[in-house]
Here is the input.
Amino acid sequence: MHGRLFLGLTLLTAAISIGCGGGSSVKADTSVSAGALAVSPPKLTFGKVTVGTQKTGTGTLTAGNSSITVTSVDWSGEGFSVTGIAFPVTVAAGQSVPFKVVFAPQHEGTVAGKITFHSDADNFPQMAFSGNATQVAAHRVSLAWKPPSASVAGFNVYRGLNAKGPYTRINSSVHPNATFTDASVVGGSTYFYMTTSVNKHGKESKFSNQVQVQIPNS
Here is the structure.
C-alpha cells in the first residue's frame, strides 16, 4: 500500500540518568555550654538543584541553661534564604527553635554561603551551606531503537502515564535520529514509551513495542 509504513520498531534501551539531590547534613554535638546558643547542623549540603526549582533544608537553634533572644540573622550566598522563623525570637533555656534554609538557584554553578545568628548569647553561632545549581533536570530517560530498513523522514516519540494510554507525542517536530532523551520526567513516576516512523509524506507507522520506565525518587 503506497504512502504507508508498516514497520515494527524495536526499542533497544531505555536508560535512566540519575542526579540525586541533596538533603544531607552533618550532625552537630547536642551539648550546649552555659550562656551559649548552638545551631544544628553546622553544615547543610543541598547537592544538585535544577535552576528555577528549590530545595529546603532544616536547622535548629538550641539554648543552653539560660534563655537566649535572637535578634537577627545575616546570610550570604546567592540563591539562599532563611524562612520559618521571625525575629526577634526567644529560645527558652534547654529548648530548641527550628528554621529552614531554602536554596533556589537562578544561575548555574556551585554556590557556598553561611548564616550568622545575632543574639544576647556569649557566642555567634554559624551554619555553612552549599549547593550545585544545574541546568540539567535531575532525571533523564535515554531511548534508543532500531530504525527500519526503509527510508524514513524521522520518528515520533510518545509517552503515557498508563500502559493503556493515553499517549502524548513529546517531540515538537519529527525527530531525525533513532535516539531520544526525555528530560521532563519527575522522580517517583512511572512512564510508558512507544515510537513511530514517519515517511516523507508525513504518514506514521504502527506503534513500536512499549517500554516501561520507573523513575527513582532521589
Observations:
- Residues 10-18+138-214 form a domain with the Immunoglobulin-like fold (CATH 2.60.40.10).
